[in-house]
Write a structure and sequence with these properties.
TIM Barrel, eight-stranded parallel barrel, 11 helices, 10 strands, binds 5-azanyl-4-oxidanylidene-pentanoic acid, binds zinc ion
């Protein structure tokens, strides 16, 4: 055994303070969390998503009572997804930005109830379009990129008008950031609304439970022609660089746990941009069911995952576990 002084590391981690010094910039504070919420057009319902225990779809009359105690715990930001139950889906995603859209209806209420809450809205066509893809398709089922970007800009502008602080396009279409930015500019929202791009979104099986929650599964095919291949790295960097060139304000890598090298690559390339990671529905389910089945303690496993995301370079984690984490933070347990 080599006992030379520079090989001795135990001395650096023998108490809690010493250990904390070894982990700087991985701490979690309330602003490091964003909480995704599903808003339905059934105003009086609160229904649990069967594939995501403890995650609900809320009608606009049921959200305030649920959110109030979580805001009390320090929740700073939410990410809204619309879910249609009664309203119709069609080929141009009309109800993504109609006056009846549940997200558009709830934004002003959220602003009134919780003036300090930062509101982000997911921008995509898939929850509102008949075939469930993230794009407008031609008669030959080919992506119509131009028509799609125009629709995405319409929707982003409507959410901005309703009061959203952040619009977050998740569709992965070429050129959407530029289109959205210039529309926000021409509509006068450019200095009040941020664009958080889902810039490196991979084609992942971990989105499975979400599609049940949002009713957004494609009715045919899959998304591999617009979402990134799981093994890719160069094109993920190209996608991020492209979105930065087109003027996005914040970046995202999604999913989180299987893509921490992409998180690191993105942060190292663009340290000046806030970086979000999305701990997606499948990651939530994995941790939830692992803990439920006695494989590990939920808090310990979750803390390890979130710390890893922070260490890789994430500034904010979008997590369905946000309420639990906030509770543990308050009790000094996270
Ligand atoms: N735009 C959102 C997704 O595609 C899925 C998120 C999740 O699985 O939680
Ligand atoms: Zn989509
Ligand atoms: Zn999506």
């Amino acid at each position: 055994m080599d006992n030379s002084p520079e090989n001795i590391l135990h001395s650096r981690i023998f108490n809690d303070t010493l250990r904390k010094w070894q982990c700087s910039n991985t701490e979690i504070a309330t602003h490091n969390l964003m909480y995704p919420l599903f808003i339905t057009d059934n105003d009086d319902t609160k229904e649990e998503v069967s594939s995501l225990p403890n995650v609900y779809r809320f009608g606009i009359n049921r959200l305030k009572e649920f959110l109030e105690p979580i805001i009390q715990l320090g929740l700073k930001s939410v990410l809204l997804f619309g879910v249609l139950c009664k309203l119709k889906k069609d080929d141009s995603a009309t109800n993504a930005d109609s006056v009846e859209n549940p997200v558009i209806r709830i934004i002003p209420l959220l602003k009134k109830w919780f003036p300090d809450l930062t509101i982000a809205c997911d921008i995509c066509l898939c929850p509102y379009i008949s075939h469930g893809h993230c794009a407008i398709l031609t008669n030959e089922n080919i992506i119509d990129v131009k028509a799609t970007c125009t629709r995405l800009a319409d929707i982003a502008c409507s959410y901005a008008k309703a009061g959203a602080d952040i619009v977050a396009p998740s569709d992965m279409m070429d050129g959407r950031i530029r289109e959205i930015k210039s529309r926000l500019a021409s509509c006068g929202y450019i200095s009040r609304v941020n664009v958080l791009s889902y810039s490196a979104k991979f084609q992942s099986c971990f989105y499975g439970p979400f599609r049940d929650a949002a009713g957004s599964a494609p009715s045919f095919g899959d998304r591999r022609c617009y979402q990134l291949p799981p093994g890719s790295k160069g094109i993920a960097l190209s996608a991020v660089k492209r979105d930065v060139r087109e003027g996005c304000d914040m970046l995202m890598v999604k999913p989180a746990l299987a893509y921490l090298d992409i998180v690191k690559q993105t942060k190292e390339t663009f340290p000046e941009f806030p970086l979000f990671v999305y701990q997606v529905s499948g990651e939530y389910a994995m941790l939830y069911y692992g803990a439920k089945n006695g494989i590990f303690d939920l808090r310990t496993a979750l803390k390890e995952c979130i710390t890893g995301m922070r260490r890789a370079g994430a500034d904010c984690i979008i997590s369905y576990f946000s309420p639990e984490i906030l509770m543990w933070l308050k009790d000094g347990l996270f």
